[in-house]
Fold Malonyl-CoA:ACP transacylase (MAT) domain-containing protein.
Amino acid sequence: MTTSPPAGCSFLKGPHTGIQPNAATSRRSPPPPTEFHLQPRELRLHLAAAPPASSRHPPRLQSSRPRRCMLRCPPPRRLCLRLRLRLGSPVSTMASTLAFLRPSAPAPLAASRGAARGVPAAVRVPCRSRVSAAGVSLGSEVAVGSDALFADYKPTTAFLFPGQGAQTVGMGAEAVNVPAAAKLFDKANDILGYDLLDFCTNGPKEKLDSTVISQPAIYVTSLAAVEVLRSRDGGQNVIDSVDVTCGLSLGEYTALAFAGAFSFEDGLKLVKLRGEAMQDASDAASSAMVSVIGLDSEKVQQLCDAANEEVDEKERVQIANFLCPGNYAVSGGVKGIEAVEAKAKSFKARMTVRLAVAGAFHTSFMQPAVSRLESALAETEIKTPRIPVISNVDASPHSDPDTIKKILARQVTSPVQWESTVKTLMGKGLEKSYELGPGKVIAGILKRIDKGASIENIGA
């Protein structure tokens, strides 16, 4: 039996490549062949009708000498594994061998606890090929599914990073005493063109609260908090123990930087542009955000529906942040937000709190910012994170750089799924969390979701 290589692939043959059927089976009609197809996005095994289970002689291919052929499909920049099937193995063995293939993910960070947690991933091959054989010895490079690396992550320790609204005058003061943290502010000054640490420590508050300054300020201060923790006794062990991270809105960029998806500098450039783009989108329309306290998400949605009945379409509101039970942020036109505030008491809300942000974040009001973000993301090198980073958009981790770019562009117009994120982490066995950065907003949200949750604040 002979085979011909598909386009883009080549056979590597040993000195003996002829394969001869067993004499016992050659006197009968040859059994239907087993064929497997290596396709761009999956590995499939197609078995032709096999002999009945009662057959005394399952079909085998044998040879007088050890032989093998190798099909190599080199997948660029992908984690690969080698598949081998021995001569003389029954068809059923070959099928079961292919069926169990599930490679493990690389270790997150350089965990001090040693072993990496294995994560199942889809088996994929980047070239299309077809080989018809039965029981041949194969060596094939099979690439791992690009966005499935963290599909079955098992969290134990998390770093959680705050978003806009956590800023406060005086933040960053501790960073001055930690050289590695102070260096981040020095780098930020070069990129931003102004003294960020001065705004953080001295204000004025009105300036610090502006979107264009608060977003870079929170990003840098939060990563400076990591360096503050690192400088403490046992801090490096805590950092090494972290196996999942996420951030609230802006904090997702901080989490991605911590996980190594992009450099501190590239992340800051993205955050700077994000803040400017969101500020411009806010200036283009009269919009706002308000927190509704004391209602579940269904009641808040009913409140939004009632408010939307009284305003024009361009003023409509929606839930923008699903934070925790009893605390949901609503975004929309100013008139729609005012209608929400006026009707909240009739829906038994405890209170409403207008948020110190420039506009209706995480709604279609931010659509003008998307194209600018997409252009900046396209020019930014993003790598597969070392540990899972949970997305605000779908409360799931992503490992494919292109997918991460698309998620970040969508994030500014999509509701933040923070409640689902925290509940998923808790349900998967999360044991300990750290909030790194200014304020204690995340700690409060976490306790509202699970009173027994363990969380520690690390400021800078």
Q: What stands out?
A: The two ends are 70 Å apart (CA to CA). Confidence is low (pLDDT under 50) at residues 1-145.
